[in-house]
């Protein structure tokens, strides 16, 4: 089954990193978050990716063009330009099929999905964003989607609260909770399963998949929600980047299913 990853946005909320690279190339433990997302899928049996490119797409292309060479030993004859690869015994090159599709620098999320129509064909496909990791059971998500018979299924998540809570009465604090790990409500966590008919809900490049397409799908009773109660984390801020890198360095990244 094909997986679309939206990787073309400007990433303005993470401008400290995205002035030089697209957000999906921001690193966790020395590897782009895009690589981590692909590992989440491939570790569960899904190896074919269609990456919707836009802003600074050359960075993502360069990474994958050179990926195999970077993992192995190289013999380079400078006179002829001939490169001979000798695979390392400990090489961990993944057996992925990665399609890198230009979908426009300023195209909105819905427009990027619509532009992928020639590649997704007539079958069910998956879609996610290039800036979030989770320990989602992809096969359980797919089974849920098929059992509900809707055009789209979104993975709903409940992230921990970013800020603490204060309960007070007449100016006196009754309860103070510093950054409670309780849900703030179910939100869109990405990790979609979609039918080709979803593309009919996208009018053009300017369409926001979230504000327009998903709202219309919901009103037509064509949107199901798979509740994921495990780990989920997006990378919107430098604080988020620091958090996921700390989890990786501590050897406890919950999304690592490989």
TrEMBL record:
Species whose genome carries this gene: Marinobacter panjinensis
Key word Transferase present: yes
EC class: transferase
Keywords for the protein's UniProt record, in alphabetical order: Nucleotidyltransferase, Transferase
UniProt cross-references to Pfam families, sorted A to Z: NTP_transferase (PF00483)
Gene3D superfamilies documented for this protein: Spore Coat Polysaccharide Biosynthesis Protein SpsA, Chain A
Residue ranges constituting the Nucleotidyl transferase domain according to the UniProt record: 2-233
Gene: rfbF
Enzyme Commission number, as recorded: 2.7.7.33
InterPro entries the record matches: G1P_cyt_trans, G1P_cyt_trans-like, NTP_transferase_dom, Nucleotide-diphossugar_trans
GO molecular function annotations of the record: glucose-1-phosphate cytidylyltransferase activity
One annotated GO biological process: O antigen biosynthetic process
Keyword Nuclease: no
Coiled-coil intervals, chain numbering: none
Name by which UniProt lists this protein: Glucose-1-phosphate cytidylyltransferase
């Amino acid at each position: 089954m094909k997986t679309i990853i939206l990787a073309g946005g400007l990433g303005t909320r993470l401008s400290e990193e995205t002035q030089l690279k697209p957000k999906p190339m921001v690193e966790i433990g020395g590897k782009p978050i895009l690589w981590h997302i692909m590992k989440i899928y491939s570790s569960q049996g899904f190896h074919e990716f269609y990456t919707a490119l836009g802003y600074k797409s050359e960075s993502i292309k360069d990474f994958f063009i050179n990926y195999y060479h970077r993992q192995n030993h190289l013999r380079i004859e400078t006179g002829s330009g001939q490169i001979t690869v000798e695979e390392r015994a400990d090489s961990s090159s993944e057996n992925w099929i990665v399609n890198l599709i230009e979908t426009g620098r300023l195209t909105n999320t819905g427009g990027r999905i619509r532009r992928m129509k020639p590649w997704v064909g007539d079958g069910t496909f998956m879609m996610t964003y290039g800036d979030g990791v989770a320990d989602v059971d992809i096969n359980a998500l797919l089974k849920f989607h098929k059992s509900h018979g809707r055009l789209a299924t979104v993975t709903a998540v409940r992230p921990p609260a970013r800020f603490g809570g204060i309960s007070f009465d007449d100016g006196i604090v009754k309860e103070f909770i510093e950054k409670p790990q309780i849900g703030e409500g179910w939100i869109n966590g990405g990790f979609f399963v979609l039918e080709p008919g979803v593309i009919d809900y996208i009018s053009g490049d300017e369409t926001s998949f979230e504000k327009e397409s998903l709202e219309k799908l919901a009103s037509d009773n064509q949107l199901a929600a798979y509740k994921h109660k495990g780990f989920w984390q997006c990378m919107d801020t430098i604080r988020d980047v620091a958090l996921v890198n700390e989890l990786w360095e501590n050897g406890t990244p919950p999304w690592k299913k490989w």
